Amino acid sequence: MKSEFDGTVDRLLDAGIFLPEAVEILERGMIAGALKIAEGNQCAAAKALGIHRNTLQRKMAGFGMGKPPRKSAGRAGTPRRRRSA
User: Fold this and answer.
1) In the CATH scheme, what is the code of domain 2-63?
2) How open is the CA angle 16-19-21, to the nearest 5 degrees?
3) How far apart, in whole angstroms, are the C-alpha atoms of residue 27 and residue 72?
4) Is the pLDDT of residue 81 over 80?
5) What is the per-residue pLDDT across 37-73, written as a single tens digit (0 to 9) for each?
6) How far apart, in whole angstroms, are the C-alpha atoms of residue 19 and residue 33?
7) Over residues 22-47, mean pLDDT
8) What pLDDT shows up at residue 79?
9) Positive or negative, the Cα torsion across 30, 32, 34, 37?
10) What span, in angstroms and rounded, lies between the C-alpha atoms of 68 and 43?
11) pTM of the full predicted structure?
């Protein structure tokens, strides 16, 4: 496994890829792979990656993978009534 990573590191350096881009490539690939193995189940994918589900969703949104997480609608669209005195 280490020799495979060493080869990948050499290829990235030879291609002139900087560290932030290399980290993004690795994260994106690991997230996509975990989601594929988990058949799209984000909770299972997050567990396999060792991160919280919210972190997975934030990273997915940042990479443009799938839908961004929804925020709770709460009482949106329902005006509050004032009590009559």
Assistant:
1) 1.10.10.60
2) 80
3) 27
4) no
5) 999 999 999 999 999 999 999 999 999 997 655 666 6
6) 21
7) 96
8) 64
9) negative
10) 15
11) 0.72
Q: Amino acid identity of 2? A: K
Cα–Cα distance between 8 and 80 in angstroms, integer? Answer: 58
Taking Cα atoms as reference points, which of 24, 23, 22 lies closest to residue 64?
24
Q: What count of other Cβ atoms lies within 10 Å of the Cβ of residue 34?
A: 20
Total count of residues recorded for the chain: 85
Question: Would you state the pLDDT for residue 30?
Answer: 97
CB 56 within 8 A of CB 45: yes
DSSP 22: H
C-beta of residue 48 within 8 angstroms of C-beta of residue 34? yes
